[in-house]
Amino acid sequence: MLWIKAFHLMAMVTWFAGIFYLPRLFVYHTMTEDEPGRERFRTMERKLYRGIMNPSMIATLIFGTWLIALNPEYYLQQGWLHIKLLLIAVLVAYHLWCGHFVRLFRDDRNTRGHIFFRWINEAPVLLLVAIILLAVLRPF
Q: What is the CB neighbour count within 10 angstroms for residue 97?
């Protein structure tokens, strides 16, 4: 179980690194005025999303599910886990929403400015804090 938990945490840290960095790339992308710069950001966004974020999200979900499957009678009765799973669903939706922006930037169809992306860059921090507190403190 400890190995599975360790891999779950490594995948989660990697996923969050991408979740924090991708909207920051969007900020810089919206502020870029030259085509070579925009192409560079398109490449960075695509590689981060597809090469790092997607695999680490999948690994996080697989290892997390595996942990629950080790003792489902216990875990599925825990209120803190239900809330954590709900927050993870929100995080997955946020991840997919970021993928939507990757495609908009790829196709030069983004209409949002850098201030919008600065704000959405902050949302995952709240999710991270809540998920960690629920997993560690198990308040109910």
A: 12
Distance CA(35)–CA(123), nearest Å, equals: 30
Token match 């945490």: residue? Answer: 9
| Dihedral angle computed from the Cα positions of residues 101, 49, 68 and 133, in that order, rounded to the nearest 10 degrees | -70
In degrees and rounded to multiples of 5, residue 121 shows phi and psi of -65, -20
pLDDT tens for residues 90-118? 999 999 999 999 999 999 999 999 999 99
- Chain centre to alpha carbon of residue 49: 10
**Helix-strand-coil split of the chain, %, nearest 5:** 85, 0, 15
Global pTM? 0.95
CB atoms closer than 10 angstroms to residue 13: 11
Cα–Cα distance, 39 to 37 (Å, whole number): 5
Contact (Cβ atoms closer than 8 angstroms) between residue 52 and residue 18 = yes
Radius of gyration of the chain (CA): 17
